[in-house]
């Protein structure tokens, strides 16, 4: 059972660049603020809605590692799988990443105490999320690039999170 | 067989619809004097079709290494899904220009086998240009796509990658 799932848009790196320019001029606080603003996830779902803000922070801070992995700091490994594996582990949570060919980023946060979830389960969870996302993009009422507000989508993601599918 | 016909009929009706809509607009006479049709609406429809469709088509694919890898995917898997065959020839100058040649393009095979109707042929490749541009845009490659028809039913698509 995962505790949080987030979908982040494709143009993050560009936003970060712009934010970086701001940092040079102003302060670190503005950088963090503008990052939060620009990279607001397209979709976020948490088991416990009260914790959403702290999860958002975790998700956003993991995006740099995603960028690092897909832009290939260690290109020799030549890992071309969409699933990126574990991005990093905190004391309380583990964070996994997945990037589609269209550069959409999916993030799953799992409780550290949860030993039942292995890489393979996480991978299949990501694949299900990707299918759901592909369906949503095919929906004429969804404009690509905007936040996803479909109730059915939120429900399906919740089911994937809790492992009831 | 019948499934394939449905898509072709839908496509040709789409073309008719866009052309007829153009004729209703007041500027139509000017446009017809220029002897060039305004097919941008058709291209636009294609763009969004491609943009949405590519998410599903690349779902099972490994990550593309580079631009050429993406083009190879377009020529093989992508083309066989939509046009039931692969591209016959892919050429590139390795500087962002790609030429995709299809000797038996699906939307043209039933139209003519030679030079007859060559003047209306652009209508039937514009949608595909849009689909290509939309798909590539979603994969992170900004491009301009044009088509060239010398003798039907063969067709060449020129993809010019825009580097910023």
Automatic annotation (TrEMBL), chain A:
Q: Does the keyword Metal-binding apply?
A: no
**Chief location category:** cytoplasm
Q: Where in the cell is it found?
A: Cytoplasm, Perinuclear region
Source domain of life is: Eukaryota
For this chain's UniProt record, which GO biological process terms are given? vesicle-mediated transport
The record's section on SUPFAM superfamilies has: SNARE-like (SSF64356)
Which PANTHER family has this protein been placed in? TRAFFICKING PROTEIN PARTICLE COMPLEX SUBUNIT 2
Stated name of the protein: Trafficking protein particle complex subunit 2-like protein
Native species: Cryptolaemus montrouzieri
UniProtKB/TrEMBL annotation, chain B:
Q: Where in the cell is it found?
A: Endoplasmic reticulum; Golgi apparatus, cis-Golgi network
- Xref: CDD domains: TRAPPC6A_Trs33 (cd14944)
Q: Which UniProt keywords apply?
A: Endoplasmic reticulum, Golgi apparatus, Neurogenesis
InterPro entries the UniProt entry points to = NO_sig/Golgi_transp_ligand-bd, TRAPP_component, TRAPPC6/Trs33
Q: Look up the record and give one Gene Ontology term from the biological process aspect.
A: nervous system development
Write out the GO cellular component annotations.
endoplasmic reticulum; Golgi apparatus
Report the principal subcellular site.
endoplasmic reticulum
Described by its record, this protein's role is as follows:
Component of a transport protein particle (TRAPP) complex that may function in specific stages of inter-organelle traffic. Specifically involved in the early development of neural circuitry, likely by controlling the frequency and amplitude of intracellular calcium transients implicated in the regulation of neuron differentiation and survival.
Family assignment from sequence similarity: Belongs to the TRAPP small subunits family. BET3 subfamily.
Protein name (Swiss-Prot/TrEMBL): Trafficking protein particle complex subunit 6B
């Amino acid at each position: 059972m995962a505790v949080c799932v987030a979908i982040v848009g494709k143009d993050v790196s560009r936003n970060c660049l712009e934010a970086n320019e701001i940092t040079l001029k102003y302060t670190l606080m503005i950088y963090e603020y503008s990052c939060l603003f620009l990279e607001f996830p397209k979709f976020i779902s948490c088991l416990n809605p009260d914790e959403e803000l702290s999860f958002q922070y975790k998700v956003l801070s993991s995006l740099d590692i995603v960028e690092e992995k897909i832009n290939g700091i260690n290109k020799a490994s030549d890992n071309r799988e969409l699933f990126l594996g574990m991005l990093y582990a905190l004391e309380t949570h583990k964070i996994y990443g997945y990037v589609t060919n269209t550069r959409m980023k999916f993030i799953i946060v799992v409780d550290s105490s949860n030993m039942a979830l292995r890489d393979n389960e996480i991978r299949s969870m990501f694949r299900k999320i990707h299918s759901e996302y592909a369906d949503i993009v095919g929906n004429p009422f969804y404009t690509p690039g905007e936040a996803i507000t479909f109730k059915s989508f939120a429900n399906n993601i919740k089911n994937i999170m809790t492992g009831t599918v | 067989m019948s499934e394939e016909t449905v898509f072709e009929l839908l496509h040709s009706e789409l073309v008719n619809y866009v052309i007829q809509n153009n004729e209703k607009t007041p500027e139509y006479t000017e446009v017809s004097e220029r002897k060039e049709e305004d097919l941008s609406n058709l291209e636009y429809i294609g763009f969004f079709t491609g943009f949405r469709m590519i998410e599903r088509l690349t779902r099972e694919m490994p990550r593309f290494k580079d631009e050429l890898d993406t083009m190879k995917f377009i020529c093989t898997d992508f083309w066989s899904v939509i046009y039931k065959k692969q591209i016959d020839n892919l050429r590139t100058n390795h500087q962002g220009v790609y030429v995709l040649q299809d000797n038996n393009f699906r939307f043209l095979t039933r139209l003519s086998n030679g030079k007859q109707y060559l003047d209306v042929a652009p209508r039937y490749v514009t949608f595909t240009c849009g689909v290509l541009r939309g798909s590539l845009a979603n994969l992170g490659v900004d491009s301009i796509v044009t088509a060239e028809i010398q003798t039907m039913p063969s067709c060449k698509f020129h993809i010019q990658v825009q580097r910023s």
